[in-house]
Amino acid sequence: MASNRIRVAKDKAEFVQSLVEGGDYTAPFQTFADVVAFAASLGSRYQKKIPLKEVAQKDPAPIALEIFVSRGYDSLIKLMAISTTKNPNILSPYDLLAQEERIGIFEEYANGGLEILQQELKGAVDYTERLLLILSNERFTEDKSREEFDLSRFL
Description:
This protein has 155 residues and is mostly helical.
């Protein structure tokens, strides 16, 4: 595993590209990193981790970790890692194995989230509109079984 790159599954590469390029309509995301971070968040929300079998080599090529850091997603990667492993040592900036594990967890959640997105956006003409509906639905859906702190009241 390349410890300084976030990879996308080969079977999801074309879908990720469609979320950035947009074609005839405005694309919902500006960069591949934005798509992957959103998908990882969605995968984490629904606890859907899918290991990567084959990795896309181009379009999107593995994305440098520095891009995620510059966009502020490094905290997201760390939060997912610690919430999954319950081990604070995974946050060590000096342990390359911990970094690889953090990236692996993030990639698996992103792959799971991309699968969810593919199902939700199937047949949609405008991805942006459908994504807004998904987010709106998530915001106003009350889940009594969740015991976590709900940030939606600040939206």
